[in-house]
Task: structure prediction
Amino acid sequence: MSRVITRNDHDAFCTTEGWQPVRNARGKAVGHHKTYELVLPDGQILRTRISRPVNRDVYGRSMAQHILRDQLRVTAEEFWTCVDDGIRPDRGVPQAPEESLPLDVVHLLINRVGLTEPEVARMTREQAIGALNDYWSRQQ
Result:
């Protein structure tokens, strides 16, 4: 049997993932429903509403599916992992590579050493430092 979603669960999901409460034109909380927005990395804005009062009232199956699919854009598994374990859904936020080159090093390799961007992109940190050391040793 699948779990049922309550208004409290919905609110906990939004709070955990970092959704922002929507304010009215006067800067106050929207009164009719508790309304949240989330800006995705691609610029899309998701919006969800929780009927007041936020309590243990259970959503019907079709309403819960609509909220997950159309408003929150997550699977039931992602929803419950966020609510229960505090693990946010993967929204495609770009992750920094484990070993990236500092911007100054990239700039020097391209503009001083004369390497192309694709060449620099394939380099490890050690290779980049070696290329700079070779360049500077030739300059003397």
Remarks:
- The chain has two domains: 7-85, 103-138.
- The chain has a mean pLDDT of 89.
- The first strand starts at residue 20 and ends at 21.
